[in-house]
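Task 17 of the worksheet. Students: predict the tertiary structure of the chain below and write it out as structure tokens. Keep your answer in the requested format; marks are given for formatting as well as content.
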Amino acid sequence: MDTLPPVLVAEADDALERLSEPDRAALRGNARASASLPRVFAASPFVAESCARQSGLLAGLVEHGDLFRAYDEHDHGKQRSADLATVGDEAALLRALRRFRRREMVRIAWRDLAGWAPTVETLRELTWLADACVQGALDWWDAELQRRHGTPRDAQGKPVGLVVLGMGKLGGHELNFSSDIDLIFAFEDDGETDGPRPLANSEYFTRLGQRLIRAIDPLTEDGFVFRVDMRLRPWGDEGPLAMTFEQMELYYTLHGREWERYAMIKARPIAGDLAAGERLMRQLQPFVYRRYLDYGAFGQLREMKAMIEREMARKGMHDNVKLGPGGIREVEFIGQVFQLLRGGRERALQQRGILSILRVLGESEVLSAEEVATLEHGYDLLRRVENRLQAARDQQTQLLPEDEHERLRLAASMGHADWEGFIAAFNHTRAEVHRIFCRVFRMLGEGASEECNLLADVCSGILQGEAAESALRAEGFAEDDAPRLLELLQSFQRERFIRALSDTARERLFRLLPRLLTRLAGEADALAILPRLFELLARIGGRSVYLALLLENPPALDQLVRLIGASPWIAEQITRHPILLDELLDARTLYAPPDREALREELTALLANVDDGDMERQMDELRRFKQINVLRVAAADIMEVLPIMKVSDHLTWIAETLLDEVHREALAELTARHGTPGCMLPAPSPARGGGVLHHPGLAVIGYGKLGGIELGYGSDLDIVFMHDSAGERQETDGDKPLDNAQFFARMTQKMILRMTTQTPAGTLYDVDTRLRPDGAAGLLVTSLNAFGDYQRHHAWTWEHQALTRARWVAGDERLKGAFEAVREAILRLPRDAEKLRREVVDMREKMRAELDQKNPALFHIKTGAGGLTDIEFIVQYHLLAHAHTHPRIVRWSDNIRQLEDLAEAGILDADESASLAEIYRRLRDRGHRRVLEGRKTLVDAAEFAEERAFVREVWARRMEPGAASMP
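Model answer:
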């Protein structure tokens, strides 16, 4: 559009009249500047007002030539240094920064509105301006604080500087005209300043960060520099303003959420110690870019997409250039979703700028060339519109205007004669962007995934309708099942994943289907089993090597149908982890789970080819080891090769083997970095003086089902961590020494991380550490001495009940005997039997009030009246009441042997003890079966009526008022 609407021309003329004579003279002497002025002033009252308010601003830009050239990344810093050179106090700093920002904003906006700068230049220069302002404020206040307190240094005396990370558009060199800037502050190491009034580094950098914000965020009579948002830092507003690198790494490792990975993609050191900032980025890279294809991110990304769609549905969001359909965020999300999913493996995706990422996605054919061009054009248009909206009055807005005059202003700034022409072109582009956005998420939402005469004809579609149903019946399927089976089969054949298969994979799939149906013929539960098999096929269809495995190994196919038919839980495990299909090849190993020693040997061999430093490979191999061996146990259980007690033994051995390996890996990692923990214990004989060097270790104490050797399928691990460091000089002996307590705390965190992190192979175990002293409020790891003191003086009765099922399960074996001594000493304390009985019963009543099944027709195997928990409470009460006089009864941590010892000691009647033990076995066996059947541990109340009546009778006789006086 060559001419402006008359109303905007008049507005520009009025603004021109308000300029000072030096500025008007500069315009008269420069035809290019003069010709561009009407368009610029019409589009931006902010630029017009700034030029009128600050006499000489425009003249300086014209006469120095800055208005007519693009800056490089150093020019803003040079100009800022010149403007701040004479600053002597805080007030002068605030004024100089704001005047500098105003000058550069006018220059950038003028070049953008005049059409002299492409969008990418405008975004880049706005970013460099913000970098320069933050660096200027940081330099001034750092010098001022160092003058008062000295230079921050680490423990080795090396200077430490603040690192300022720019997030979001600032980090990606994509800052818009009136944007907030999202910052995170960090520093490399703890220590203190070396001046006469020393401060801890944490306090120094917190003060420095506060003053930096105070320099650029507030609105003064000179305006503002940039609004600062610190909420992206660890723990948000609740977190410290500045953290050490190690604290940040620990936060993101243990607590980092998917949206924080998303935010960290664009993180960039923008000011302060830039070299240290790059080191921090390398430390955090494994959090942002996972080396494996990040399956765990899919669900989170879909939630983020749903959040975007919910926001779009809100009133007014349709007209939001950033958040509305086809808006800026959809373009960014398309790029960043692939960065999160694939960035760990594809280094080309480890870039900050969205345009670069779109080009990479085009080159790798994730997006077509046409889609890349559409998104590049769309992004350019959207960002130009956003900048024009904000440049109008230096206000942070992304909403298209409703006012007619402002609509005309925006349309004219975008080169359109009227609003209708602009909005039609704009909406067309947004629609194209939104179309691609939806296609990408449809793509991400899809699964990966015998020539038997009549059945082959059914599967191929040659036979249809009644003919197909007759063929199914002829092959052995039940009369009433045939119509539904045909419906399931035809629905599967229409699945979209099949259309995406390669010719080879599709051919293998349709050869496999009739063979599966042949094996299902005659099965009473064929209608239930077939959907499970289809789920598995949808998962493995894209990896035709698994289809080939099943085609070429009929016994493996037999085992698959057998196991999936017997257990929905096994079906789910194989579907989730198809690598388990390999185990079907050898029935001898499938149904013969290894013992504890063989498990250790197998895991050692599995890890032999994995580097000690390759944590991700280690975690994947540990998970596969667990899945393989749990499948073996489940298969043997289903086929009744193993009795219930042996099932739990094997599941417990698997957990212990993995805990021991995770302990070894975490210890190796930390000792390599910090050395071996040591401490000086008092000499055995005071006459000898001095002390004895001791190398303390860490033990894992199992509670609950793990401690009681009663693990089930899918059980989490109740564990407590304990070390035996004591005495003096408790620290490691490496180049970077740590206090032993800190060493073992980090070791514990690393162990938990290795067990609970989601990888392509899933998680290892869910871990519950709340049974430690003081529960969730207590230290994650405690010393053996502190544990004993807590149990003796502060623990509740229910904690002593829990201790009856505790035992050493992994870690430093030297602590095994020491823990057992503490445990037995606590359990053997004399107790008031009646008071103990009341407390145990009260705790059980609280549990019943919270957990009891409200439907009387159903019985919960664990928590229902007469169930497992009642038996456990009966045992625990009698152990605690009588261990003082019968110390042998607390030797074991499992209920069965505890019941046997109670009978041997004469505390329980022998028949009574044997009956309780048998009922306990039966209930646990039924619970295992329910899990394998994919069901809750609820059964018909009549199923265990006789057993429950017996347990309730024992409870009433031994646990009700007056029972404490019984022998």
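Marker's comment: Residues 866 and 953 are 9 Å apart (CA to CA). Residues 446-452 have pLDDT under 50 and may be disordered.
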